[in-house]
Amino acid sequence: KQEVTQIPAALSVPEGENLVLNCSFTDSAIYNLQWFRQDPGKGLTSLLLIQSSQREQTSGRLNASLDKSSGRSTLYIAASQPGDSATYLCAASGGGADGLTFGKGTHLIIQP
Amino acid sequence: KAGVTQTPRYLIKTRGQQVTLSCSPISGHRSVSWYQQTPGQGLQFLFEYFSETQRNKGNFPGRFSGRQFSNSRSEMNVSTLELGDSALYLCASSSTVTGRFTTEQFFGPGTRLTVL
Among partner residues B45, B56, B90, which is closest to A43 by beta-carbon distance? Predict the structure, then answer.
């Protein structure tokens, strides 16, 4: 059974810092991995999708990497801004599970 | 292009009642998935529909059911509501499927269900 873990559970940093969020999964036979952000009481916004054959994807200040062999993905946020404050979730498709398997998320606060 | 829409946004029900939630996917998307989000369990997969057929199902009791219509709109139903069914129910759509898996999923704003 696929399990997804996100570390740290919470993170608070000053504005302008670069930061890395971590995601690990137990079954490397994934189809793809998605990163989302969720604002309080809202739905999920898709940030980046990495196919199993890819190593990384970039969108603006965001860069996500995937290392299937080690069962890890990272989300790099450059030059953080207060508007980046949200909960960030990673989700794996495949790995013996139906649907997306989500981590519990990293609650990120960017201090102005 | 309009995003995924869900109705209603908020619902309050009492134990034992049943409820139906609705989801309209992004135009042209044929796959609809449903998820339950609670503080304790996080996000959990309920089921997925593609071309009016349930393709995958998560580990939820039979009280949770769904269907998909020919226009790809989907409904999920929960019968005999329990207090533990209080959650945010999220619907996601994707354009197509590849074998067992969906392509990139786009989520709606969710329906907040409170069971009293």
Answer: B90
CB A84 within 8 A of CB A110: yes
Q: Are A46 and A36 in contact (CB under 8 A)?
A: yes
CB B73 within 8 A of CB B23: yes
Given a cut of 70, whether residue A77 has pLDDT beyond it is: yes
Chain A, chain B: beta-carbon pairs less than 8 Å apart: 61
CB B109 within 8 Å of CB B10: no
CB contact under 8 A, A49 and B42: no
Comparing CB atoms, the residue among B45, B57, B109 nearest residue A100 is B45
pLDDT tens per residue across span B95-112:
877 666 668 899 999 999
The backbone torsions φ and ψ at residue B12, rounded to the nearest 5 degrees and listed phi first, read: -125, 125
Tens digit of each residue's pLDDT (9 = 90 or more) over B51-86 = 999 988 999 999 999 999 999 999 999 999 999 999
